[in-house]
Amino acid sequence: MNKCVYFAAIDKFQRAKSVDPSVAEEANKLIANCSAHTPKPEDLFFLGLKKGDNVNIGGWIGETVTIR
């Protein structure tokens, strides 16, 4: 599984916080959890990726994320 999918989840949790501040506490917990699973720099290297690159997460997710 491409761990870059976690960047898409983090983006959605960030968006949820900006739309509804009442969910900020839960969103922050989920962001922390997802952040622990994002690819490490050495993993990105082997995928031919680096911070700042855009990655298309295909399938039913259908999102493009920026690696950070």
Can you characterise this structure?
The chain is mainly α. It has one domain (5-66). It is 50% helix and 12% strand. It has three helices and two strands. The protein has helices at residues 5-19, 24-35, 41-47, and strands at 54-57, 63-66. It has a two-stranded antiparallel ribbon with strand order 1-2. Strand 1 (54-57) and strand 2 form a beta hairpin. The model has no long low-confidence stretch (mean pLDDT 94).
Number of distinct beta strands: 2
In round numbers, the mean pLDDT is: 94
Number of contiguous helices: 3
* Shape type: globular
Major beta sheet summary:
2 strands, antiparallel
Helix content: 40-55%
Distance between the termini: 18 Å
Our count of domains comes out at 1
What fraction strand? 5-15%
Please state how the strands of the largest beta sheet are arranged side by side.
Answer: 1-2
Helix/strand/pairing class, anyone?
mainly alpha
Stretches where pLDDT is under 50 for at least 5 consecutive residues are: none
Order of helices and strands: HHHEE
Radius of gyration: 13 Å
